Amino acid sequence: MAGTTETMGTGLPRGFRSAEQGWPELHRIPHPPRRLPLLGDVLGADRHRPLQDSMRFARELGPVFRRRAFGKEFVFVWGSRFVADLADESRFAKHVGLGVANLRPLAGDGLFTAYNHEPNWQLAHDVLAPGFGREAMEGYHGMMLAVTGRLTDHWDRQLAAGRTVDVPGDMTRLTLETIARTGFGHDFGSFERERPHPFVTAMVGTLSYAQQLNSVPGPLAPLLLRAAARRNAADMAYLNRTVDGLVAARRRSGGGEGDLLDRMLATAHPETGERLSAENVRKQVITFLVAGHETTSGALSFALYHLARHPEIAARARAEVDRVWGDTERPAYDRIAKLRYVRRVLDESLRLWPTAPAFAREARQDTVLAGEHPMRRGAWAMVLTPMLHREPEVWGEDAERFDPDRFTAPAVRARPPHVFKPFGTGARACIGRQFALHEATLVLGLLLRRYDLSADPGYRLTVAERLTLMPEGLRLRLERRPRRPEARTPGGADTRLHRTGATPPS
Ligand code: HEM
């Protein structure tokens, strides 16, 4: 769908095409039974948890359903047969819709929010993709270890003071510092602050605002959201100022160590010789600072929640870390992917709560979805990933149960393709997937080995939504594990991670 950077003041992107126009047989798609005139399907809805509302409707209405809001219809899809069809890149593509489109004023034609037809998508993709290749990742590894060392220093201090730890808050500190350091040579000093860095507060503000725009009835939006819109403008201005400062410092210094920012500023497209414009660099820096930490922070937080809830799974994961890493506190790059079980814990966490929980797909041409529902060119649907990941026919009747062994190689091979999509699909799937998985596996390995983790028995999982998902209010109690007597690596000296402080190893 073509569009501009603005919304119409109604929360809907300009040029928005509703399902009435795009789905000629919309009447065949079920909707919630009790609809209110003007407002649509809002009965029982929780404005702060639209995704979990949609999950509830999905359970009632089946694999393809619709909801009405702002006087417009929206189609949601989660049945694996339909999602597999939407993954066909020859007939469907990413749709920049709703929440994602609402981020356009901030992230413009940056990689995540670019419309498919915008030339800066391909240019930035080609220039930045090598920044996520193996060689680049190896370069980030030492910095990821160093940032994790800052986290464990912080957790050791909390432990010594007899305090529990704030999991989402600290995972956000960790992942923000990691992307800032590896991507932009920048240090936000998150672990030295009591409260979240203002960058995080402003980011959460804009993400929440983008989500809010989706849930306020169209004609009333400008009125109801006046104060929120003012705050959002201030948040955006702060984010832009931060990024401009960071870029200006790099230009003054004459270049970094070949990180993402260097690529953005200096690398020409290998074929066309074209470079990113200054305005586009600003959009990309914001995009990577936000996309590069918020979702990984949630993924780590959910994984820690499950590990704390399932001591037998934690014990198995820890035994793997001990076996594969020995006692080296600075595991080498190629030791991370060897933590197969820890990786399964992560996959299983992302199955139940994929932290970027929906993505939208649009028809490139007139077509029929899975042979059942006609769609006109430009018509689109929202894929509800957490429901796709719970489909009983694929995952079994016990799909709600946390079981990392769903991700053993034979179990994965036995399932059809396109049933596990935490990183989206096709050409516009997540560029940072390997980065996130490497970082999260490394962090879980180090934390498991250092601490026993337990949740407050009274804690009930509540999932907070701000376009992304996060376990709300999760705190863990830590106990330091005794070091094993043979404090040697399988092949080298034992250097203590937490003593390396913030200095990245070369
Ligand atoms: C567990 C962590 C992560 C999850 C669950 C996740 C999920 C996703 C999903 C679902 C999409 C596709 C969205 C759509 O189709 O509209 C996406 C795209 C993207 N992600 Fe991630 N992501 C994660 C980590 C990262 C990291 C670490 C980075 C950067 C360092 C990153 C950067 C991006 C970018 C730039 C895009 C847009 C790609 C494009 O359209 O070309 N993500 N991510």
TrEMBL record:
InterPro entries assigned: Cyt_P450 (IPR001128), Cyt_P450_CS (IPR017972), Cyt_P450_E_grp-I (IPR002401), Cyt_P450_sf (IPR036396), Cytochrome_P450_Monoox (IPR050196)
Biased composition (Basic and acidic residues): 478-487
Stretch list, region Disordered: 478-506
Residue ranges of the TM segments: none
This protein's UniProt keywords: Heme, Iron, Metal-binding, Monooxygenase, Oxidoreductase
SUPFAM superfamilies associated with the record: Cytochrome P450 (SSF48264)
Record-stated family: Belongs to the cytochrome P450 family.
Protein name as it appears in the record: Cytochrome P450
